[in-house]
Write a structure and sequence with these properties.
The chain has 132 residues and is α+β, with helices and mostly antiparallel strands. It has two domains: 2-79, no CATH class; 83-132, no CATH class. The chain is 32% helix and 10% strand. The protein has four helices and three strands; from the N terminus they run H-E-H-E-E-H-H. It has helices spanning 2-7, 24-34, 85-101, 106-113; strands spanning 13-16, 66-69, 75-79. Helix 3 packs antiparallel against helix 4 (106-113). The protein is flat and about 55 Å long.
Length: 132
């Protein structure tokens, strides 16, 4: 949205109110009909199910973040918790080391770095969550 560029002064996370969710099936059916085709005759819809790691819902913010209004009613600012560059650099270094030495421990490390992260599989290799 072009309005977001005019609102932000830099460094903020802007969230757009997208309205009510739309079912993918409804979207697919509408696209087929709007293309002048008939569902089930000209083109079919196939249900394949979720793939491993695929999300059914996207979280735009975490529960401890506060939202601040902007001058536009459909745009809000996520007042996120600050992080130090040194902490981010150290976390990246740990992930790079694990990628070389113990890739099975990466999921556990991600769960430590990002407490809100929810893996669909338990950490492998006995990785434990511990303070950095």
């Amino acid at each position: 949205m072009i309005q977001a560029g005019a609102i932000d002064e830099g460094g903020h996370i802007l969230l757009l109110d997208m309205g009510e969710p739309v079912r993918i099936l409804d979207l697919a059916e509408d696209m087929i009909r709007l293309s002048g085709l008939r569902i089930g005759e000209d083109i079919g819809i196939e249900f394949t199910g979720a793939r491993p790691g695929e999300k059914l819902f996207e979280e735009l913010r975490v529960s401890d973040e506060h939202c601040l209004p902007t001058s536009h009613p459909k745009i809000i600012v996520a007042d996120h918790r600050g992080v130090e560059r040194a902490a981010i650099a150290a976390a990246i270094d740990r992930l790079e080391r694990l990628a070389r030495e113990a890739p099975e421990a990466i999921v556990g490390q991600l769960m430590h770095i990002v407490p809100e992260y929810q893996s669909s599989a338990p950490p492998m290799g006995g990785a434990r969550r511990h303070a950095a």
